[in-house]
Amino acid sequence: MAKVSLSNVVALLEAGTKRKAIQEQLELTGAEMRVLFNHPKIKGLRAKRTIVEIIDDLGDSTDEVDNNPNTYEDAKVPSSPWLDALNIEPINVNQQILFPEMEEVNY
Questions:
Q1: Phi-psi region of 63 (alpha: psi -120 to 50; beta: other; left: phi over 0)
Q2: Which of 17, 54, 29 is nearest to 9 (CA)?
Q3: What is the mean pLDDT of each run of 10 residues along the chain (107 residues)?
Q4: 10 close to 42: Cβ distance less than 8 angstroms
Q5: Is residue 73 exposed (0-12), middle (13-18) or buried (19+ Cβ within 10 Å)?
Q6: Are 13 and 48 in contact (CB under 8 A)?
Q7: Cβ neighbours of residue 50 under 8 Å, at least 6 residues apart?
Q8: Cα 21 to the center of its chain, rounded Å
Q9: CA distances in angstroms from 35 to 28, 29, 39, listed in the order given
């Protein structure tokens, strides 16, 4: 009679080991596997799907570099004769402009 640790079987299942591989590793017969997986504590458990583990082997490039040329500081206003004819002044986004035509009223 084979002795099998339930915690060992659960660990193998969580590591993604299929039942067939567990049977071979523990050298169990088909009947022993049926008895094992009918145990109330592991009944219905299946091997967890393994998700791809990505290994960064490109070096120490952990610092994020912003190579995006479309940042606010680097933004360039496109120039065209049509836009120039409109005489639009650039707006400073750091300045609060609510109602420029209204005078400030103190109550």
A1: beta
A2: 17
A3: 88 91 93 93 87 80 56 58 64 55 58
A4: yes
A5: exposed
A6: yes
A7: 16
A8: 30
A9: 10, 10, 7
